[in-house]
Structure formats: structure tokens, C-alpha cells
Design a protein that fits this description.
With 171 residues, the chain is mainly alpha-helical. The chain has a single domain, classed as Ferritin (Up-down Bundle). It is built from eight helices and no strands. α1 runs antiparallel to α2 and α5 packs antiparallel against α6. The longest helix has 37 residues. It is globular and about 45 Å long. It starts with a helix and ends in a 5-residue tail after the last helix. The N terminus is likely disordered.
Length: 171
């Protein structure tokens, strides 16, 4: 294999790995937020968690055509759902404010991955999907900051403005 071909292969493998990690991150978020919504007694918080579930599900679904086109394996969803269950047990024992504060560090990690996906995009469709993943993560982080009173604005505003969320069907 010549050096340029090897470099292309390396980039393609890295992008594929990132897509699987990103997809599974959305699987985890959807399962966790759904579990939390099902167990939340406060109606406002339950609504927020239902919107977060919709955000994660609709963002995950954005990548479906990409996975089909590239014939990518979506990863170990069963293991991710198991992890989500374990996280649900942890979240059940923290306050709402602690949960909200935990979102930013996780969002920061995923933003690095999603921005790398934008940079590695092989074509316009892939770039557009990766950019929507970035927008999703920025909106999720803003939700947490706003819900904690660290930023002005309605917590769900930026999430509900995302085109893939406005057209998504609630569960």
C-alpha cells in the first residue's frame, strides 16, 4: 500500500470508529434519559428528560443513513444499554443539580469527537450529519447551564430549535 492510500485508510478507520462511539453515545443518552423520565415525579423535570430522550434518539437516527451507506456496524448496543442501566442506578442517588452539573464534562468529551468527525468527513452528507451532532451537544450543554441558572434563557430552547428534533416523533 502506498503512503497516501495508507493515510486515507487510517483516516477512514478513525472516522468509522468515531461514528460507532458517537452512535453508541446517543444510544446511552437515550436509554438513560428515558429511564430518568420514567422515574421522575416532578412534571417539569420529566418533560425536560423526555425532550432530552427525543434529542438523543433523533440525533442517533441522523447517522442511520451513513451507517447504511458505509456498511458500518453500529457497535455493541446491548453492552451500551447495560452501561446505561448501571448509570441509571448512579443517577438515582444524586440530586437533580448534580445530574445537571455532570452533563458539561461529558458534553465536552463528545464535542471533541464530533468536531473531529466534522474534520474527517468524507463528503458533504457526512459533514452535515457531524455538524448536527456538534449542534446537538452544544444545545445539551446549554440546557444544563441554563437549568442550573449559569446562563440566561429557557433551558430547552436550543434543543427544540434543532431541525432534527422539531421533526422527530416523541416516543
Amino acid at each position: 500500500m502506498r503512503a497516501p492510500a495508507l493515510a486515507f485508510y487510517s483516516v477512514a478507520v478513525r472516522a468509522s470508529e468515531l461514528w460507532v462511539e458517537s452512535y453508541q453515545g446517543e444510544v446511552l443518552g437515550e436509554a438513560l434519559f428515558s429511564w430518568m423520565a420514567d422515574h421522575e415525579e416532578d412534571p417539569e423535570r420529566r418533560n425536560q428528560l423526555e425532550v432530552l430522550t427525543l434529542l438523543e434518539r433523533s440525533t442517533k437516527q441522523l447517522a442511520e443513513p451513513l451507517f447504511e451507506r458505509k456498511a458500518l456496524d453500529r457497535g455493541d448496543t446491548a453492552a451500551t444499554l447495560k452501561t446505561a442501566g448501571e448509570l441509571a442506578d448512579v443517577v438515582a442517588n444524586i440530586t437533580w443539580e448534580e445530574f445537571l452539573a455532570s452533563i458539561q464534562p461529558v458534553a465536552d468529551q463528545f464535542l471533541l469527537k464530533y468536531r473531529e468527525l466534522v474534520a474527517l468527513a468524507a463528503d458533504d452528507l457526512e459533514r452535515e450529519i457531524a455538524q448536527l451532532y456538534v449542534a446537538h451537544e452544544l444545545a445539551l450543554a446549554a440546557f444544563a447551564r441554563r437549568a442550573l441558572g449559569k446562563e440566561s434563557g429557557e433551558p430547552l430552547e436550543l434543543i427544540l430549535a434543532l431541525p432534527h428534533v422539531t421533526t422527530a416523533t416523541p416516543r
